[in-house]
C-alpha cells in the first residue's frame, strides 16, 4: 500500500462540483488509479480480440483501426439483445436520487462516480449514435461525439464501479448501473481493453478449473494440508473425497476459500461440518471454482465458466450441488445459471439427507447455498454447538452486495451466526441488508494497484464497522463472500483497525461439537481459545 | 446555461403562438397543431414501447430489496422480493402509484465527531414528496380537463373537481391541485438549480420540461383565476376539436392559444424525451420480474451455444499429475497414446 494516503488525508473529500462541465473533463491516468491491462497472451488464449502490450498512461491505446465501427455495431447489437440496456439508456430523468448512494462517490467525491453520471458517459454516446435528436442537436440533447477520450474515460470509470447495484435500489425506475457497467465492459473488450486482474482469473478458471490456476495435484495438497490443521485442532482426521463418482452431493466453493486466509478457515469449517453430519459428498478439481469472473467480462464468458458446474455434476453422477460462501457466484447461480446452462434433468431437486427438507426454492437450479443448508440443520437440531467457544469474538455481519441485491439472502446467514456466537451486533440499518455497502473491491477490482480507490470505496463500510467497534467493541466482521474475505482485511485495517474478518462457517466450525473430538483449546486459526487453553 | 436556454426556448414557443394567433393563424394553433401533436404523441409513445419490447429480457435480474423465499420458517419479503407474478404485480403497483423506491431515499453527510469521521445518513423524502405531489396533481388536472372535451360531463370528472375544490376558497373556487402543482414544479426546478450535484448532472432536457410544464400551468391559472377567459367559448372550441369539426370562437383570447400550443409542444416532445419514463417504468427488468430463477426455467431467446473447456480436455492436460496425486481419472495413463507426437 505504498502510495495510499492516510485516512486523514483521504478524508479531505471535496463534494462540491467542478466549474467545468463533465463532458469537457478528461480523466488523468496516474499510477494507483487504474488497473493494469490484461496481458496479451491471456487475451489471446481466451480468444478475445486485439491482444497487445499497452498502458492506460499511453496516449495511443493501439485500438483497432475501425474501432468506432466496432463500438457502434457492438452497441447496436446489445441494444437489440438486452431490454435493460435500451431502457436504461432512455428513461433516466436525472433526479439524482442515486448520486450519494455509490461508495466510490462517497469516498472520493468524483462527480463521474455518481451512478447517474457514470451511465451518462455511455448514454451521451447512445444519443449521438442512435437517436435523431442527438445526431442533430448534439450537446444540446446531451449527446457528444465518440472519441478516443471517451473510450479512455469509460475504462477509467467503468472499472470504478463494482456492480453492487446499490443505486438501483433507490432508483424510481430501477435503473441498474451494474447492467450499464456490464455493457460498457463488454464493449471495451471488443477493442481489446480489459484488466489483468479479471482476465487472468478468467483464463485460469477456464483451463485449470479455478481462478488461481491451482492444478489438480496442488489442489489436493492444499486440502490435505488443511485437513492436517483440522486434525491438530480437533483430533479428527478427515479425508474428503475428490473427483469421485457416485456421491450424492458435489460441493463447489470459490477457490479463494482454498487458497488464502481467512477463507481457508471457512473451508475447514465446511469440511468439518460435512464430516460431522456424514454428508455423502465430493469435491472436484475440475469444477473447483464457485466464483465467476466471466460476470465481469461478458455474458458469453460467464456462461462458459458456469457450464462446468452442471457438466461436472453430471459426470460424477451427483444428485444436487451444494455451494459455498461467495458473493457474485450466488448472483450468477440465482439469476443466470439455469437460463445459461440449464435445465439439468440429470440432477434431482435438492433434499437434505440429514433433515429431509426439500429445497423448493432451488427446484430448478438444483443448487443450495451452504448457509441455507446449515440453517436448516440448526433449526432441526441436527448439530451440536458450543457457542461459548466464540465468546472472545464480538461479531457483526457484512451483507455482500450480490447475495443482498441480486438474491435477497439476509436471514439465513444471520440465523447461522446467531446460533454459533453469543455476541452479535448489527451495523447501522442504512449500511446493511439491501442497503449494504460494497467492500470496494467487487467485480474484479480487488487488486492492489488501485488500493487508494478501494479504500475510498470502502469508506462507508469501514465507517459503519468503526461505529460498531466503538459502540460494541466488535472485533470480528463475518461475511459470506470470498472477495470480501480478501478485500475487507485491508479495509478494516485502514478504517477500523483491530477488527478481523471471517467467513460464517469458520464461526460454525469453531462452535461445532464433533463426535470423538478432543478438548478444543485452539480455534481454526490455531490460536489459543481464551479460557480454554491447554493445561 | 442549459437553464437559460430552456427558459428562452419556452419563451420563444410562447411568443411564436402569440404572434401566430395575432397574425391570424388561429385555426393552425387551435386545430392543426393540436391534431398533429396528438398524432405524434400517440404514435411516438406506441412506437417507443414497441421498440423497447422488441429487445428481449434474456435474464431475470430483479433488484431484490428484501428477504428471498427460502426455508419455510424464514419470512419472505414478498413485496420487495416477489417469488411469483402476483407479488411482482403488487410490487409494481406500489412502485408506480407510490414511488416506493424513491421513498427509501436518504442523504449522506460526512461529518466529524470526537475527532473521527462519521458517515451519517438522513431521511430525505422531499424529492419523493414533491415528485409524488406533482404527478398526482397533474393526473387530477388532466382528469378535470375532460370537462372541456365531454358532454355531458362524466361523474368521475365532476367528482374530481368537487374533491379538488373542497376547501371552497374564493371565486372561481380554488383548486388545491393548482396551488400544489406550482409549488411542486418550483421545488423540482429550484432543486436542479441549487443542489450542486443535481445542477451538475442536469441537461437542457431536464430544465426544458419543467419550464414547459410551468408555462402550461401558469397560462392555465391565468385563464381561470385572473384573465377570466370566455370558458363557454373555450368549451365550444374544444368540443369542436373532439368532433373533428374545428371552429374558432373569436371571444377566446390569445392566452388560450398559447396554453394549447404549450400543451401541443409537450405532447410532441414527450415520446422522444426522458418523459417516456412514464411508459418505461412498467418495463423495467429490475422491478417487473419475479425473483424465481432458482425455481423456474426461463428461456433466453438468443441463448448462445454452450462452449466450455470440457473435463476430457482438462484431464488430458493434467492426467499425469492427477494420477500421481491419487485422483481418479477417466482414462488411465497407459491408455493415452503417448505416441501422439510421434504419430504426427
Blueprint (SSEs and pairs):
The complex is a heterodimer of chains A (535) and B (344).
Chain A: H1 7-10, H2 40-45, H3 67-81, H4 83-90, H5 103-108, H6 115-130, H7 132-137, H8 148-158, H9 166-170, H10 177-190, H11 196-208, H12 216-234, E1 249-252, H13 256-259, H14 263-277, E2 281-282, H15 299-316, E3 320-323, H16 327-341, E4 367-369, H17 370-379, E5 395-398, H18 401-405, H19 411-420, H20 451-457, H21 459-472, E6 476-479, H22 482-495, E7 500-503, H23 504-511
Chain B: H1 2-22, H2 26-54, H3 85-98, H4 100-103, E1 106-113, E2 116-123, H5 126-144, H6 155-164, H7 176-194, H8 196-201, H9 204-226, H10 231-242, H11 254-269, H12 277-280, H13 311-324, H14 340-343
Antiparallel strand pairs in B: 1-2
Keywords (chain A): 4Fe-4S, Electron transport, Iron, Iron-sulfur, Metal-binding, Transport
Organism (chain A): Oceanidesulfovibrio marinus
Protein name (chain A): (Fe-S)-binding protein
How would you describe this protein?
- The complex is a heterodimer of chains A (about 525) and B (about 350).
- Chain A has helices at about 5-10, 40-45, 65-80, 85-90, 105-110, 115-130, 130-135, 150-160, 165-170, 175-190, 195-210, 215-235, 255-260, 265-275, 300-315, 325-340, 370-380, 400-405, 410-420, 450-455, 460-470, 480-495, 505-510; strands spanning about 250, 280, 320-325, 365-370, 395-400, 475-480, 500-505.
- Chain A is mainly alpha-helical and about 525 residues long.
- Chain A has two domains: about 5-195, no CATH class; about 205-510, no CATH class.
- In chain A, strands 2-1-3-4 form a four-stranded parallel beta sheet.
- In chain A, helix 8 packs across helix 10 (about 175-190).
- The model of chain A has no long low-confidence stretch (mean pLDDT about 95).
- Chain B is elongated and about 105 Å long.
- In chain B, about 55% of the residues lie in helices and about 5% in strands.
- Chain B contains 14 helices and two strands; from the N terminus they run ααααββαααααααααα.
- Chain B has helices spanning about 1-20, 25-55, 85-100, 100-105, 125-145, 155-165, 175-195, 195-200, 205-225, 230-240, 255-270, 275-280, 310-325, 340-344; strands spanning about 105-115, 115-125.
- In chain B, helix 7 (about 175-195) runs antiparallel to helix 9.
- Chain B has two domains: about 1-285, Fumarate Reductase Cytochrome B subunit (Up-down Bundle), CATH 1.20.950.20; about 310-345, no CATH class.
